[in-house]
Each structure stands twice: as C-alpha cells, then as structure tokens.
Amino acid sequence: MKTFYATTPIYYVNDLPHIGHIYSTVVTDVLTRYHRLLGEKTRFLTGTDEHGQKIERAAATQGIPPIELANRVVERYHELYRRFDIANDDFIRTTEERHRRGVEEIIRRIEANGDLYLARHEGWYCASCETFYTEKELVDGKCPIHDEVAAWQSEENMFFRLSKYGPALLDLYRTRPEFVRPETRRAEVISFVEAGLKDLSVSRTNIQWGIPFPGRPGHVVYVWLDALSNYVTALGFGAPDDRLYREFWDNPEGRRVHVIGKDILRFHAVFWPAFLLSAGIPVPTTVWAHGWWLRDDKKVSKSVGNIVRPDQLVADFGTDALRYFLLREMAFGQDASFSDQAFLERYNADLANDLGNTVSRVAALCRQAFGSSPPEPCDENELIAAAGRAQAAWRTAMDDSAFHRALEAIWKLLSEINGYVVAREPWKVLKEEGRSARLSRILYASAEAVRVAAVLLSPFVPATSRKIRAAVGAPDGTPSLEDLSWGRLPTGSPLAPAEALFPRVDTAAYFSTEEGKPMSTEKPAAPAAPPPAAGDGHISIQDFQRVRLVTGRILEAERVPKSNKLVRLQVDLGSEKRQVVAGIAARYEPEALVGRNVVIVANLKPAKLMGVDSNGMVLAATVGEAGEPSLLEVPADVPPGSTVK
Ligand code: MSP
C-alpha cells in the first residue's frame, strides 16, 4: 500500500525553539497534510535529540542533570506544537527506551557486516556541530558553521567504514535523482563524496551522556549515529512489534521524506544512507534540504545571537499569520531574510486585505441577501475556470514542494474572486432586484470559489481554512481531494457568524510602541523551572494555595491600542481596584465585558504588555485548536474580592 512518511530533524534540547526550528516543522506539517488531503496514508514524526557533548555541557552550565534540561525543553516543544497546529503522529526522544533498543540493533547489524573497527582518532572537534573537522576546513581555527574555536581531541574510537560506501552512494545519487533535493544540494553532495570519504568515528569515550556502545564498555554511541536512527526506531525498528516500520519504511510503495535544513545535509545524505546500506535497511526516498532564515545576513541561531522567537509574533498576530509568512516569504530551498517590517507588510497586504477582506465581503453579502444560509447553486461561471486553474497550479507546486508558488496560485484565485465581485456589484443587484436568481448565481459562485480557496489553503493555515469554510456555510472536517470539485458548497446550511480573520495593523504605530525593540527579538523566559511536584506529577495543597485567586467585577474595558488581542481592564476586587491586561480581544468586544464577574490571579508578578501595566491575570478557558479564550464565569451575586479556592 502507498504510504507517505515525513520527518523533521530532531531538535537539540540545549536551546528553546526559534523560527528556524518552527520552519522545518511547519513545512513537514504542510507536506503531510497535503498528502493526507490526496488520500494517502501518512505519518509525521518529529522529536528531540537529547544526547551528546553539547547537551551535557549546557546542562552542566545550568547546574541540572541533562535529562531535566531535556524535559523542560520538550515541554516547550509540545506547547508550541499545540499552538502551531502541528499534526505530528509521534514525537520521539532519543532518551527513550524504544530508541535505545533500535540503535543497538542497527549497530549490531553494521558490526555483523564487518563495518566497525577500533582505532585512535584525532582531530578538531566542534561541539555545536558534534563533528570533527580537518585543519583545512576550519576558518582561523574556528568551526565554519558556528564560528566557535574547535578543540583538539584524541581518543580510541569505534570507526565505521564509510570509505567503503563511496561508490554505492554515488550510484544512489545518480540513479535516484530525487534522493537529494533541491538539485543544487544534490550537486554539492556528489562533489563531497567524489572527493573521497574517510572512515567515521562512531563512538566517544570522553563523555557519558549517550547510549552505551554495545559490547564496548566506556564508549557511548556517537550522537549523530544515535540521532539519525530515530527515523526508524520511532517506527519500531528492532522492537517485537515493528508493524509501523514495515508499513512506512520497509515498503517498496512507501515514500520516506526527511525535511532538514541545509546545515545538516551531509549527515542525512551521506552518513545516514551509508549506515542504512551497511545495516541492510532501505534508504529514504528523499532528503529535502531547505535554506536558512537569516537576520542581518547571518543564519538565525543561538550561537550567532540573532534569534527570532515566535512568541511575540504569535501572541500579537496568531499562529496562522506566522505559518503563512514562513511559507510564503521563503522560496523553499533558498535562504530568506526575516524582518518585522516584511512580516507586517505581508500580514496587512496578503492576510488582512487580500484574504480577510475577500472572505468577509463575500460572507457578508451572502448573509445580507440570503440570511443564514448560502444561495442556490450555479454551475456556469467564469470562477469555475479560475478555481480549476488555481487548483492545477497549486497541485504542480505542491508536488514540487514549491510552497510559495502554491500560495501564489491561491492568491491569484482570491484576486479573481475579488475582481468578479467588484465587476458584478451584487450589492447593486440586491438593491435593484432583491433576492433574484441572478444575485443567487453571483453569490453562490463567489462563496463556492472562496470555499475552494479555503480547501487549497488547508495544509498551510488549517485553523483559518476551517473558519473560512464555516463562514460560507461549508461543512467542517478534514478536507479531501473531492472537496476541490466545484459545486460541493451545500445550500441551506447555517453560515458561521462573521469574524475578522486578520484585523489590519497600523504598522507605524505598532513599531512605535515597541520601545525601539523589534517584536520578534523579544526573548522568552528561560525554560521555566517546573512547579515543585511529587514524582507522580501532583502538587500539594500548600503549593496550590500560593496562588491567590479572587473574584472581581470589570468596571472598564478598552482595547490596547495597536493590539489585536489585548484589552485593558479596570477590575473591582472589593478592597481595591486593579488594572489588568487580558489577551481576549479576539473573542470579546470591550463593551460586552463591563459588569462581568471574573476570576483573577491576584498575586501574579506585575508585567507590562505592549507598554501597559498589568497587575494580575483574568482566568479563561482556551477552547479548540485555535485556543480561543472563554472567560470563567462567576455568578452575579458573588461579591468582588471573594476568595476562590
Ligand atoms: N539535532 C540535530 C539534528 C538531528 S536530525 C537526526 C540538529 N538540531 S538543531 O536543533 O540544531 O536543529 C537543526 C534544524 O533546525 C536545522 O536542520 C533546520 O532544519 C532548523 N534550523 C535551525 N536554524 C535554522 C535557520 N536559521 N533557518 C532555517 N532552519 C534552521 O541539528
């Protein structure tokens, strides 16, 4: 059976995720959603790379065991993935037992094939890359990628006979051009291998934080051999139940795609297939190496110190705005520069204007003319051809992983829908003819084309796609290929209430509130220390009582200028009045908040949000995948200042 398996790199846990990591993950998410939409059986794996010198050192610097550092960062990944609508099927951690077992089995097979031997190894080591460099490869004694001084290391290691696999690898690249993509990367890999491969040291004796090398006390498995194996260990390779492995990896009809950044191409396109060939395991179908997000012409990375964090962007503009930006701004495979200005421009022009306005205009007209349900169908219209063209261009681009071009095709359709509506002037038709058949045809065609655009958008911005479909009365659910056929918009189904998808932002004003700091460089807190918890994850009643929860009545509410999410509240807490800023504007109009009874965290450390002081926090449930806030209600007869416990 045809299957599609896509993976992200597994991320090091010495750092919190930044937009580079998010990008690889979002791309893999889009790819998997696309194949699911095509009706294929898909699986999406991501995870964390937790062993090695780099992690051992980072944990030592923080004075905690490596596993504790890993646990904290993993939590953060889970939380971000939830917010980013990442639909991964599995999340592997290299410290898991299932992984260790699989790595041992791979090593056992490589050894059985006669590809391991013991020898002394010396060289210049960059701990950030976890790799050796030759003197020639270093730039002024520093790692060419991380600009860090490389350290001389000399130790007895187990070696893998990589040199033996040169001819087989070259044969692989030549007979299967899709093995490395894009083409420029393939050429790079070929010339690297043609220059000759040296054997690779695959064990370490100078660190402890790793998987013990089978049969070699004192050695741990080299972190790259450990890490790369995740792609099969997560499927149950080497486990008694290896059904997933057989379905998604050892399957001639299965496609196996690794999405990676170009920084780790050599490991994936040279070392990994060589390990697999040696172990008698099929190689991946494609290693897709994308470019880098740059800031000030340098790769965004912790060691360079020009990190772009997603937190503030997501808080102010929502997840889908960032997903869209990342996929539209970067031509997949090439580098792209991140700037707040570019982000806001795309936000206002593409999302607020082209997408948001087109959808709200069409939905509002349908509602105005036909009440709560879409009009009668029509099957003769120029938009049918436009939707067909958009679909074809989208499909070609998606099959080529040219996500930016797929989005361009959707935007062309949006502009055609807009042009159609402007030319037909349905508002005039409504005035002159009432709910005529002509009006019905115009509006059905517009709403149906919007629905098709939403289906095309679904792999990219799943939550927004869902909202758009609801706004024109299309049924909910995971879209399939059939949903791209014209005429599937039912009539008589309710239209969801209007909601501004991407409210416009005043760019100049936005920057002026940031105290000279670009929004995306705001540093998140260091990985938060977990609350004191017993081994079973419970906290004591005393721990809970440290949080002072009281009821309050909202006296005043107004939007925080230039923010889509924030509302400034004056809250009566009985004995005092407090100013609290809450991120609930997307759901609540300020006027509707006045007089409401709410629950406040009264002893939260004061903070400034978009320059406004906040002394407390309002409790709200987060609903659905989009995490919409829904305020906790307190009965009207409970006086302000009552303790909640
Ligand atoms: N742990 C290894 C990968 C092991 S895979 C078997 C690793 N981890 S990492 O945390 O450094 O993340 C690397 C990946 O994050 C890159 O390959 C790339 O996919 C992504 N990015 C990190 N910084 C990036 C940019 N500035 N731009 C785009 N993506 C980059 O390497």
Describe, in plain words, how this protein is organized in 3D:
By secondary structure, this protein is α/β, with parallel strands linked by helices. The strands form 7 sheets. Strands 1, 2, 3, 4, 8, 12 and 13 form a 7-stranded parallel β-sheet that branches. Strands 17, 18, 19, 20, 23 and 26 form a 6-stranded antiparallel β-sheet that branches. Residues 9-12, 20-21, 23-24, 49, 227-228, 230, 260-261, 263-264, 292-293, 299-301 line the site of 5'-O-[(L-methionyl)-sulphamoyl]adenosine (MSP).
Please give the structural blueprint.
Layout (H helix, E strand, L loop, with lengths): L2 E5 L3 E2 L6 H19 L3 E9 L3 H10 L3 H18 L6 E4 L3 H16 L3 E11 L4 E3 L17 E10 L5 H10 L4 E2 L1 H12 L5 E2 L1 E2 L15 E2 L1 H6 L1 H4 L9 H6 L5 E8 L3 H15 L6 E5 L2 E3 L2 E2 L11 H7 L1 H11 L6 E2 L2 H31 L11 H18 L3 H22 L1 H8 L3 H21 L4 H10 L35 H6 L28 H5 L3 E11 L7 E6 L4 E6 L7 H4 L3 E5 L5 E3 L2 E3 L2 E2 L1 E4 L4 E4 L11 E2 L1
Parallel strand pairs: 1-3, 1-12, 2-3, 3-4, 8-13, 12-13, 14-16
Antiparallel strand pairs: 5-6, 5-7, 7-9, 10-11, 14-15, 17-18, 17-20, 17-26, 18-19, 20-23, 21-22, 24-25
Helix pairs in contact: 2-3, 4-10, 5-6, 11-12, 13-15, 13-17, 14-15, 14-17, 15-17, 16-17, 17-18
